[in-house]
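Recall from the previous lesson that a structure prediction takes nothing but the amino acid sequence as input. Here we apply that procedure to Nuclease HARBI1 from Acanthoscelides obtectus. The sequence below is the only information supplied.
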Amino acid sequence: MKICLRYLGDPGYQQGIGQELGVSPATVSRTVDRVVNSIVAQSHEWIKFPTTNHQLMEAKRIFQSMYKFPAICVIDFTHIQVGILNPNRHRDEYINRKGKPTLNVQAI
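The prediction returns the following tokens.
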């Protein structure tokens, strides 16, 4: 799993990730393939979208009751860079895997 997560965080560099983690590029490729295929095979259990108006209204009601916030939809953004300056304090908490200062947020 660690190999797959590392690869998904910086795709396209199987050889470098393999060297970093002490495995061959082929092992990186096989591991990523197996983990991603396993996730996709089980995704129907985790990813469900409302298909009727009743299901949509029920999902909105549940979300509002859980988080006390009305929502039409929920969107997950990861890294937002616009307007983020390089912080002086706790710098490592704001630097993403590409070395740029960002905020990792979830937005509704």
